[in-house]
Specification:
The complex is a heterodimer of chains A (485) and B (258). With 485 residues, chain A is α/β, with parallel strands linked by helices. Helix content of chain A is 48%, strand content 11%. In chain A, strands 1-10-7-4-2-3 form a six-stranded parallel β-sheet, sandwiched between helices. Chain A has a four-stranded mixed β-sheet with strand order 8-5-6-9. A two-stranded antiparallel ribbon of chain A has the order 11-12. The longest helix of chain A has 23 residues. Chain A is globular, with a radius of gyration of 27 Å. Chain B is α/β, with parallel strands linked by helices and 258 residues long. Chain B is 48% helix and 14% strand. In chain B, the strands form two sheets. Chain B has a four-stranded parallel β-sheet with strand order 2-1-3-4, with helices on both faces. Chain B has a four-stranded parallel β-sheet with strand order 6-5-7-8, sandwiched between helices. Classes of the chains: A alpha/beta (485), B alpha/beta (258).
Chain lengths: 485, 258
C-alpha cells in the first residue's frame, strides 16, 4: 500500500477526475447517501431537536473530558477490562501488538475502525508477524486491493462491483475459476464464506467504537453486517481502539447520539447492529472474551481542547459532511491522501498530522456550507476550514502568486478611484478583445478560468461612479443613478 | 414574514465588485427596483470590495481593513441592500465575527450586519413587495447561490417576485442545493474540480429546457454562463434584478453585442 500524502491533493484530484470508473462509482455516493439521509430526516420531525441534544451532549463531554475519562476507566476496569491511554499512534500500535503477542496470536480479525487506519495498525501488525483480516465487507475489499478506505463509513465506495469481482478472483484462487460473481449477492456470499473461517479461528478481535459510555464502561459499535459482533465475541481476546472524544456520560446520552448518527450516516433510524461490549465474560456468562482491552488514543486531540478547533471534537464520524460535499463528490476520498476525507478530513488532517503537508486541503472547498447544514453535531466546518486557511496564509504556505494577488487587491480596494480605474481598464481591454463574441475563450493570466469555461465580456463603464456622479456635497445627478445622500 | 416597524427611509446600495466591473446593468436594475418600492437610494461613492476574497483566502487582516471601510461608508444609512447573497452574507454573517473581540468596531459591525439585506429578500421581507409590473414571455430556471440559500436564507423571495413577471414560467433545476463550483478564488485555485462542478450545474440548467438561467449572484452567473458558452449553448443568462426591473433588452451575460 502506498503511503498517504495529502500534499499531492492537486495532482490526485486531476487523476481522480480523469478516472472514469471512479466517476461512475461516485455518482452512487451522491445519489444514494444523500437521498437516504434526506428521507430519514424528513421522517423524523424532531430531528432538529435531536441535533441540538446530541451536540449538547458532546459539547459537555468535550468540556469535561478528563472527568469522563476517569469515570470510564473505573467502570471498564471494574468489569475486568484493561484500559490503555496512548498519547500517539506509535504507542497505540505498540500497545496493541504487545497485547497480541501476549495472547500468542497469529490471526487477528478486525471490525471497522478508522482510528486503526489513523495509527497505521495493519501494516504494523503485519511487520510484527500477525495477520490482520478486515471483516467489514468494504474494508475487506480495500484490504485485498491494497488500498486505504476512501470514505469513513463506506470504505470501498470508490469501486464498482465488477472491480470487486476482479479483486475476489485474484484473492481467492482456491475457488472455481468459472464461478459467477456478477451480482452483489454472489460477491457478498463469497466474502461471507471467506470470512466465516477467519472469525472462528481468530485469536484476537479488534474493533473500533462509535461511543464509549463513561457510566458503564461499555464501548458501543454500530455496523450493518454483524461483523463487529463476530469480531468481538468469538476470539478469546477483544481489543477496542477508540479516540478520547468518543466518550459520552450515560447510556441515555449514547441513545441520543445514536439517533442522529444512523440517520445522518446511512439514513437509517438505527444501524442493523448496535452492540455494547464491556469487560470480560463474567462467571456464569456463556460468551464473551476472556480478556478485554480498551486502547484510548489521544494523538493530537487533547491539544485541540480549549482552542479554536475544539468544536471538531464533537464529530461522531457519521460521514454526512463527506456525502454532501461537492468536492468529495467530484474527486472521491483517495485524492485527499489522508485517512479522514471530505470536510471533516480537511479539518482533521492538518490538525492531527501536519499543516504544511495538508496545506491544500483547507482550500479545497467552495465554502458552500452544505457540510455544516447536514452536520448532526452542528460543527461549523467552513469556519474551521477558514481558520486553517488563515494559518496557511500566516505561515506562507499558500502560493506566492495568490499572496501577491491578495496584497494588490487589498491595496486597490482601499483606494476607490484606483480600484474603479483598474476595473474599467480591465473591462475595456476585455471588451476590445471580445465584445463581438460576448465571451473570450482565453485571456492572459486567466488560464485557470478559461481552461474550462469562457470568460464573459464585461458591459464596461463601471457602476458606482456613473450611479453616483455627485458633487462634493453628496448630491447625485438626476436620471442616471442614485438619489444622493 | 411581515414588515417590521417603519420602512427604512434611506437605503444604500452596495453594488459589489462583479457588478462594478462586469455588469453595471444589475446595479441600475437594483436602483430601479428600490425606487419603485418608494425608497430613496444612495450609492456611496467610497465603496469597493466587502473583503470576502481576503477573508476566504485566510488574510483576516486584509479582510478587516476592507470591512472597516465598508462599515464607515455604510453605517449611517437605514439599510444596506446588496444584489448578491454572497457579499451580503459577508457583511451580515462574517463582519460581526471578524470584530468579535474589538470594543470599537464590534458593535459597529453588529449594527451594520443587522440592517444588511440581499436585494430580493429586502424587497419581499422588508418592503412587503410581492409583485413587479413587468412582462417577459419566456421560461426561466433559477439558480440559488450557496450563500444566498444557506447564509441569507434567500429561497422563496426571488421566486415569488419572478412568479409575478407576466409571461414568465419558472422551472426548477435538479439538485438545487449543489454548488456551481465558483467559490470565489476556488475556481482558479482548483480549476479542474471547479470545471467539473460547473459542467454538472450547466448540464442541470440545460436539462430544465428553460430559455433563461437566472440567479442573484454574479459569481455563479459568470461561472455558469462561461461554461454554457464553452458547451456551445446560447441559453440566456441574467441576474434576477434585470428581469424584475424589466431590463432584458441589453445582451445577456456572455452574449455578443451588435
Amino acid at each position: 500500500m502506498t503511503p498517504l500524502s495529502s500534499g499531492g491533493f492537486p495532482a490526485n484530484a486531476r487523476d481522480a477526475l480523469a478516472d472514469e470508473k471512479l466517476q461512475a462509482a461516485l455518482v452512487n455516493v451522491r445519489t444514494i447517501f444523500r437521498g437516504n439521509r434526506t428521507r430519514a430526516v424528513a421522517a423524523t420531525p424532531e430531528f432538529e431537536a435531536l441535533r441540538d441534544a446530541g451536540a449538547a451532549v458532546k459539547r459537555h463531554v468535550v468540556e469535561n473530558l478528563d472527568a469522563y475519562l476517569e469515570r470510564f476507566i473505573a467502570a471498564a476496569e471494574a468489569r475486568g477490562g484493561v484500559v490503555h491511554l496512548c498519547a500517539d499512534a506509535a504507542s497505540a500500535r505498540e500497545t496493541i501488538a504487545a497485547i497480541c503477542r501476549g495472547e500468542g496470536a497469529k490471526l487477528v480479525t478486525k471490525g471497522k475502525s478508522m482510528v486503526t487506519e489513523e495509527i497505521g495498525l495493519n501494516p504494523y501488525l503485519e511487520s510484527q508477524g500477525f495477520t490482520p483480516v478486515e471483516t467489514d465487507l468494504g474494508e475487506y475489499i480495500v484490504q485485498l486491493r491494497g488500498e486505504p478506505p476512501s470514505h469513513i463509513i463506506a470504505p470501498a465506495c470508490h469501486v464498482k462491483k465488477e472491480q470487486v469481482a476482479e479483486t475476489f478472483r485474484a484473492a481467492h484462487p482456491h475457488r472455481p475459476a468459472e464461478r459467477d460473481l456478477s451480482t452483489h449477492e454472489a460477491l457478498l456470499a463469497e466474502a461471507r464464506a471467506e470470512l466465516r473461517a477467519r472469525f472462528l479461528s481468530a485469536d484476537v478481535g479488534i474493533t473500533g467504537a462509535n461511543l464509549l459510555i463513561a457510566e458503564t464502561g461499555d464501548a458501543v459499535l454500530v455496523t450493518n453486517e454483524g461483523n463487529g459482533d463476530l469480531t468481538q465475541s468469538l476470539p478469546r481476546c477483544h481489543i477496542v481502539v477508540a479516540s478520547i472524544e468518543k466518550l459520552v456520560p450515560t447510556l441515555e446520552d449514547a441513545a441520543t447520539v445514536l439517533r442522529v448518527l444512523g440517520r445522518s450516516a446511512t439514513g437509517q433510524a438505527a444501524s442493523s447492529y448496535t452492540t455494547l461490549s464491556g469487560g470480560v465474560a463474567q462467571p456464569g456468562e456463556r460468551g464473551g472474551p476472556a480478556a478485554c482491552h480498551v486502547v484510548i488514543l489521544d494523538n493530537g486531540r487533547s491539544a485541540m481542547l480549549g482552542g479554536k478547533y475544539e468544536e471538531m471534537l464533537r464529530c461522531i464520524r457519521c460521514g454526512a459532511c463527506i456525502n454532501h460535499c461537492p468536492i468529495f463528490a467530484a474527486v472521491g476520498g483517495h485524492a485527499y491522501g489522508a485517512v479522514y476525507v471530505g470536510p471533516m478530513g480537511s479539518v482533521l488532517t492538518p490538525l492531527l498530522q501536519s499543516l504544511e503537508e495538508a496545506r491544500h486541503l483547507p482550500h479545497a472547498c467552495t465554502m458552500c456550507g452544505r457540510c455544516a447544514e447536514v452536520c448532526p453535531m452542528k460543527i461549523p466546518l467552513p469556519d474551521l476550514l477558514r481558520r486553517l486557511r488563515e494559518e496557511t496564509h500566516a505561515a506562507a504556505l499558500t502560493s506566492a502568486r495568490s499572496r501577491m494577488g491578495l496584497r494588490l487587491w487589498t491595496f486597490l480596494a482601499q483606494h476607490p478611484s484606483l480600484y474603479r480605474g483598474a476595473g474599467r481598464l480591465a473591462a475595456a481591454a476585455l471588451r476590445l478583445a471580445g465584445r463581438r463574441a460576448g465571451a473570450l475563450r482565453r485571456w492572459p493570466l486567466a488560464g485557470g478560468w478559461t481552461r474550462f469555461r469562457d470568460l464573459p465580456v464585461p458591459q464596461g463603464g463601471g457602476f458606482v461612479a456613473r450611479a453616483y456622479r455627485g458633487d462634493r456635497t453628496g448630491r447625485a445627478a438626476e436620471g442616471d443613478g442614485a438619489d444622493g445622500q | 414574514m411581515t414588515a417590521p416597524s417603519p420602512l427604512p427611509r434611506r437605503v444604500a446600495l452596495f453594488a459589489t465588485c462583479l457588478v462594478e466591473t462586469f455588469r453595471p446593468a444589475v446595479g441600475f436594475a437594483a436602483i430601479k427596483l428600490l425606487r419603485d418600492a418608494g425608497l430613496t437610494v444612495a450609492v456611496p461613492p467610497g465603496q469597493t470590495c466587502c473583503g470576502q476574497p481576503s477573508f476566504n483566502s485566510g488574510d483576516r487582516e486584509g479582510a478587516k481593513r476592507l470591512a472597516k471601510r465598508v462599515i464607515a461608508e455604510f453605517e449611517d444609512y437605514d439599510a444596506v441592500v446588496v444584489p448578491s447573497g454572497s457579499c451580503a452574507g459577508m457583511i451580515r454573517e462574517h463582519y460581526p465575527a471578524l470584530f468579535a473581540d474589538d470594543a470599537q468596531w464590534g458593535p459597529r459591525a453588529a449594527r451594520l450586519s443587522a440592517k444588511t439585506h440581499e436585494l430580493t429578500a429586502f424587497l419581499v421581507d422588508i418592503c412587503g413587495i410581492e409583485t413587479v409590473e413587468v412582462e417577459r414571455s419566456a421560461s426561466a430556471a433559477y439558480h440559488d447561490s450557496c450563500s444566498a440559500r444557506r447564509e441569507m436564507k434567500v429561497l422563496s423571495q426571488p421566486r415569488k417576485l419572478l412568479a409575478s413577471v407576466d409571461g414568465l414560467e419558472l422551472r426548477e433545476i435538479d439538485e438545487p442545493e449543489e454548488c456551481c463550483g465558483f467559490g470565489g478564488t476556488f475556481c482558479v485555485k482548483n480549476p479542474e474540480i471547479s470545471g467539473h462542478m460547473v459542467e454538472e450545474k450547466a448540464k442541470a440548467a440545460l436539462a430544465t429546457g428553460a430559455d433563461m438561467l437566472l440567479a442573484g449572484d454574479m459569481g455563479c452567473l459568470l461561472n455558469i454562463a462561461g461554461r454554457l458558452r464553452r458547451m456551445g449553448s446560447a441559453m440566456e443568462v441574467r441576474h434576477v434584478a434585470e428581469v424584475l426591473a424589466g431590463d432584458t433588452q441589453t445582451p445577456g451575460i456572455a452574449e455578443p453585442e451588435e
